[in-house]
Amino acid sequence: MSAMDLSSAAFPVNTPKFWGDEKELVANCIETGWISSEGPAVKKFEAKLASKCGRRHAIACANGTAALDIAVKALQLGKGDEVILPSFCIISVITQVVRGGSVPVLVDSDSTFNMDVAQIRERLTPRTKAIICVHTYHFPVDMEPVLALVKERGIKVIEDAAEMIGQTCLGRPCGSFGDISTMSFYPNKHITTGEGGMVLCDAPDLAERCQQLRNLCFDPKKRRFVHEELGWNYRMTNLQAALGLGQLSHLEEAVSRKREIGRLYTKLLEGCPGLILPPDKNQKSESNIYWVYGVEVAPSVSCDADAVMKRLAAAKVGTRPFFWPMHEQPVFEPMGFFKGVEWKGGQSFPVAERIARRGFYIPSGLALEDHEVEEVARRIRKVMEEIVSADGGYSK
Ligand SMILES: Cc1ncc(COP(=O)(O)O)c(C=O)c1O
């Protein structure tokens, strides 16, 4: 968008970026006729991403939700097993846990919006079979205590790295921590294939199992179309993988641009009344990746995030609310997972409840240019000044 037409411009919450070389790679699929999941780009994309994450195997699939479904099923999480996960996450994380008959056991969030790993130990029982770690918005989960715990107890880890492609934790790439790790390539992710996902692991038997689950549980040892088990058609097309290959070769640039956008927002919004901005580093000095630029409406402001987002929509600034906690999801209410359960430390999720109501994120797409970030920040500051002054002024 040119600098001239910005005053009337609308800013969507996401604008994906294409680097140029994707076009030829996708055109090549059409020219050669390789468009389905059988095409060569799928294997290339898998190999390239596996190597980026230091994993032995990568299994491309239809989306990040599908990747999580495959992970849960491949680790044989089933009836009666307990799976610890954050309440504050996207519903994709819990879907197959519940469908497969396992019991979701929730932990609250910490100040980084990630799961509060200190609560995990309190939730352990002899039935605990896995922990799902979901790196959320800005920083990786504090993996060190999680890894120590699972080693001690022999439980499995699923790492959802959908939002942290290109992020590091303990000096290692996100996507390298889980018995199975997963990713999404939705257009708001650091690399996109339109829709798409990846399962990453090291164990060859797990990789084979994930490949089967992705492809209807066809069994290579059996006559075609004879099945011992039910799987899904969660395959990725060659067209998507070709796009992914083009995107993946620019991952470092994408991550560094995200950080530039994030830091520019912070510079421009510093001191903005009524808004709490995300820090650039966490307590372990890991850098915010700014997958999105997530903010909180300060407690002293009378209205919540919904009201602020409405005002920003009127100013043509696109936003998204934060996730809604799993323990407050209507769909789970009749299932009774989160009622009457007395964990040590109580059954309450004050942080998840607060950030769900006070948090939202602002235009964060990779294609945003600096002058657009400046205009968005100007409009946000104006809206917040109006809100806070209608509140009768305010001090943080
Ligand atoms: C952390 C996380 N996990 C899983 C998903 C689901 O991915 P998909 O939309 O590709 O199914 C998302 C989507 O945004 C996500 O943010």
What order do the helices and strands come in, and which of them pair?
Layout (H helix, E strand, L loop, with lengths): L21 H11 L7 H13 L4 E5 L2 H11 L7 E5 L5 H8 L3 E5 L12 H4 L4 E7 L8 H11 L2 E5 L7 E2 L2 E2 L6 E5 L12 E5 L2 H11 L23 H11 L2 H19 L5 E2 L16 E5 L7 H10 L5 E2 L28 H9 E4 L7 H21 L6
Parallel strand pairs: 2-3, 2-4, 4-5, 5-8
Antiparallel strand pairs: 1-9, 6-7, 8-9, 10-11, 11-13, 12-13
Helix pairs in contact: 1-8, 2-8, 3-4, 3-7, 9-12
This protein binds pyridoxal-5'-phosphate.
Structural notes for this entry:
With 396 residues, this protein is an alpha/beta fold. It has 2 domains: 3-13 and 251-319 and 363-390, Aspartate Aminotransferase, domain 1; 22-248, Type I PLP-dependent aspartate aminotransferase-like (Major domain) (Aspartate Aminotransferase, domain 2). 35% of the residues lie in helices and 14% in strands. The protein has helices at residues 22-32, 40-52, 64-74, 92-99, 120-123, 143-153, 204-214, 238-248, 251-269, 305-314, 350-358, 370-390, and strands spanning 57-61, 82-86, 103-107, 128-134, 156-160, 168-169, 172-173, 180-184, 197-201, 275-276, 293-297, 320-321, 359-362. The structure holds pyridoxal-5'-phosphate.
User: Briefly, what CATH class of the largest domain?
Assistant: Alpha Beta
Average pLDDT: 95
Q: Give the number of helices.
A: 12
Q: What structural class is derived from the secondary structure elements?
A: alpha/beta
CATH architecture of the largest domain: 3-Layer(aba) Sandwich
Distance between the termini: 35 Å
Q: What is the total domain count?
A: 2
Order of helices and strands: HHEHEHEHEHEEEEEHHHEEHEHEH
CATH topology group of the largest domain: Aspartate Aminotransferase, domain 2
Measured on Cα atoms, how large is the radius of gyration?
A: 22 Å
CATH superfamily of the largest domain, by name, is Type I PLP-dependent aspartate aminotransferase-like (Major domain)
Keywords: Aminotransferase, Transferase
Organism: Cladocopium goreaui
InterPro entries: DegT/StrS_aminotransferase, PyrdxlP-dep_Trfase, PyrdxlP-dep_Trfase_major, PyrdxlP-dep_Trfase_small
GO molecular function, one term: pyridoxal phosphate binding
